């Protein structure tokens, strides 16, 4: 699989872009739990 990415730099670029986008989207998703008013907890209503 490594030789495939050496021969096809476009595939390597697309794969890296997809991985970085997934990491950024995950961080944004996790950050959205905080909100503006501070930390929100899942079990806050109990």
Q: Helix fraction?
A: 55-70%
| SS strand fraction | under 5%
Overall pLDDT metric = 78
Number of strands: 0
* Separate helix tally: 2
Task: Point out poorly predicted stretches.
Answer: none
Distance between the termini: 50 Å
The radius of gyration is 18 Å
Query: What series of H and E elements makes up the topology?
Result: HH
Question: Overview of this structure, please?
Answer:
It is a single chain. The chain is mostly helical and 46 residues long. It is 63% helix and 0% strand. The chain has two helices and no strands. The mean pLDDT is 78.
Quick summary:
The protein has 46 residues and is mostly helical. The chain has a domain at 2-31. Helix content is 63%, strand content 0%.
Give a topology summary.
Layout: H1 2-7, H2 9-31
What brief labels describe this structure?
rod-shaped, single chain, 63% helix, mainly alpha, 46 residues
